Amino acid sequence: MATGPPSSQALGTPISEFLLSSGTSGGDPKLIPTVKDELDRRQLLYSLLMPVMNQFVPGLDKGTGLYFLFVRSETKTPSGLPARPVLTSYYKSDHFKKHASNTCTSPLAAILCADVFQSMYAQMVSGLCQRHRVVRAGTVFASVLLRAIQFLQQHWEQLAANIEHGELSPCVSDPAVRAAVAGILQPDHKLAQFIRTGCSNGDWAGIIVRIWPNTKYLDTIVTGSMAQYFPILRYYSGDLPIASTKYVSSECPLGLNLHPMCDPSEVSYTIMPNLAYFEFLPTDGGVAAATELVELARVEAGREYEVVVTTYGGLSRYRVGDVLRVTGFHNAAPRFRFVRRSGALLSVDADKTDETELQRAVERASVLLRPHGAAVLDYTSRVCTKTIPGHYVVYWELTATAQQGGVGTGSVDGNVLDRCCLEIEEALSYVYWVLRVVDGAIRPLEIRVVRPGTFEELVNLAVSQGASMGQYKVTPMRDGLGRHPTS
After folding, report:
1. For the GH3 middle domain, which residue ranges apply (predicted)?
2. 122 burial via Cβ count (<10 Å: 0-12, 13-18, 19+)
3. Which residues span the domain enclosing 369?
4. CA dist list (Å): 224 to 20, 66, 264
5. Are 158 and 23 in the same domain?
6. 446 is a domain residue
7. Do residue 390 and residue 282 come from a single domain?
8. Are strands 345-346 and 353-354 parallel, antiparallel or unpaired?
9. Same domain? 44 vs 107
10. What is the CATH number of the domain that holds 402?
11. What is the structure's pLDDT at 352?
12. How far apart are CA 386 and CA 481, in angstroms?
């Protein structure tokens, strides 16, 4: 279809465009076919989010959202159809444009600016100018919200100067963006001084609630690979609740969280059967345990399944790659908790460590950093096979969490990291322990601390190579050479 033959030969409804997957599972984005009325189904899911939230958080209609949303440049396939990430497709749609001004502080022109720096800068200054209107803050993925906070850390002086003089810096050159922000940005010496006072002392704990004091919760996905960002987001937000409201993929929307204010570790999603046709492949020990697919109405509580979708866009029994556990039912509708990506495993021998198990181990080890005024800002992992036997390598980027007078990350020496390595290994599975300690089939785990800003550079590299800022996710590296997916 992408190279030329008319899609109507395969489907009754012609393909309207191709959605690019994030690329984090296999290294390269996939082309996902979609049809025009798929946007209606996505909008149906999105339209239910606020009614659900209103049941748990009062007063949301009294303000707006501080959302950092991004698009990327789109391409065309040889057949002439657009190829772009699902978020870019949605943000450029009439569905989104109709409601954007009422739901977030960011001007539409800033969201639709493909230059990530200009877009972030304009959205941040707009959010600062409207800080008292903000009742919720978020991004699609937690990693992007963390990057927005880091952007504020790096550019608060320039942002404050813009607000003081009521004029946007020349670093934002897009005429449409400048015109949109001009309607929001007015000279405000008091606000500029407030930003300088709040950001200049080096204390970033609770910065979100200090600058946006009416914020009631964070709206961002912290399940799956995003779970690693939960502790640092709690630090920056002053322990605000974090709501993971929806479960969507490039292939199709899937469902929503009917109990959004639960602890992130307890998040379950109720799949809406009108969004696609859903089937489930039972799994056992991380691999498919059967060839017979189970229908949505016949899944069993407590069991794990890999989700399989047949979509309106033409995918037939497509394995999305997400492994889910049935946690219960809403009336007769099953509720699912995301467990892992089916292919995201570290393995040297017979061991199989998935991202959830590694995340728990890293959380346990990171507790040892607290007395030293440090925390894990971001991490990834790989298996090193240059040595025989091989071993796990975990890359940490650290950030200081100590208040003024604290010692920061400088005191995290080799002895502390050695203890962290042992703590991670203690938290891994019994199979890993046998292979590591009894059989000697795995060498000791290694933590490598990367310099500050490394993961931000990784994001910048991915975006420069065509990844979507809004869909970027860090996943385990794929081989012993340390090559990382481009998006």
Report:
1. 269-341
2. buried
3. 345-452
4. 20, 23, 10
5. yes
6. yes
7. no
8. antiparallel
9. yes
10. 3.30.300
11. 78
12. 8
Give CA–CA dist 241/223, Å, rounded. 14
Q: What is the pLDDT of residue 409?
A: 46
Residue 121 pLDDT: 97
Query: Does residue 263 lie within any of the structural domains?
Result: yes
Residue 2: inside a domain:
no
Complete DSSP assignment for 152-173: HHHHHHHHHHHHHHT---TT--
Number of domains present in the structure of the chain: 3
Omega within 30 of 0 (cis) for the link into 389: yes
Rounded to two decimals, what is the model's pTM?
0.78
In DSSP terms, 466 is beta-bridged to none
Encoded amino acid at 375, one letter:
A
Query: Of residues 207 and 354, which shows the higher confidence score?
Result: 207
- Residue that is last in its domain, among 200, 225, 244: 244
Is residue 238 located within the same domain as residue 254? Answer: no
Are the beta carbons of 139 and 123 closer than 8 angstroms? no
268 in a structural domain: yes
Given a cut of 90, whether residue 361 has pLDDT beyond it is yes
Is the pLDDT at 487 greater than 50? The verdict is no
The rounded distance, in Å, linking the Cα atoms of 398 and 378 is 7
Same domain, 324 and 394: no
Select the more confidently predicted residue: 389 or 68: 68
Buried b (16+ CB within 10 A) or exposed e, 387-408: eeebbbbbbbbbbbbbeeeeee
Same domain, 297 and 442: no
Q: Residues in the chain, how many?
A: 487
* Token representation of residue 5: 């033959």
Please name which of 329, 332, 325, 326 lies closest in space to residue 354, comparing C-alpha atoms. 325
198, exposed or middle or buried, with CB in 10 Å at 0-12, 13-18, 19+? Answer: middle
Q: Clarify whether residues 295 and 234 are in a common domain.
A: no
Whose tokens are 């590694």? That residue is 358
Say if residues 397 and 455 touch (Cβ distance below 8 Å).
yes
201 shares a domain with 86: yes
How far apart CA 42 and CA 275 sit, in angstroms, is 8
In whole angstroms, give the CA distance from residue 121 to residue 90: 22
Identify the residue whose tokens are 């809403």: 330
> What sign does the CA torsion over 142, 148, 150, 152 have?
negative
Give the domain-ending residue among 218, 244, 270.
244
Residue 456 is given by DSSP the state: H
Non-local CB neighbours of 486 within 8 Å, separated by 6+ positions = 23, 27, 28, 461, 462, 465, 466, 467
For residues 381 and 27, give the distance between their C-alpha atoms in angstroms, rounded to a whole number: 15
Enclosing H/E stretch for 304: strand 304-310
C-alpha dihedral, 190 to 194 to 197 to 199, nearest 10° = -140
pLDDT digits (tens, 9 = 90+) for 311-357: 998 899 999 989 999 999 999 999 999 988 776 678 876 677 877 88
The number of helix segments (H) and strand segments (E) in the chain equals 14, 22
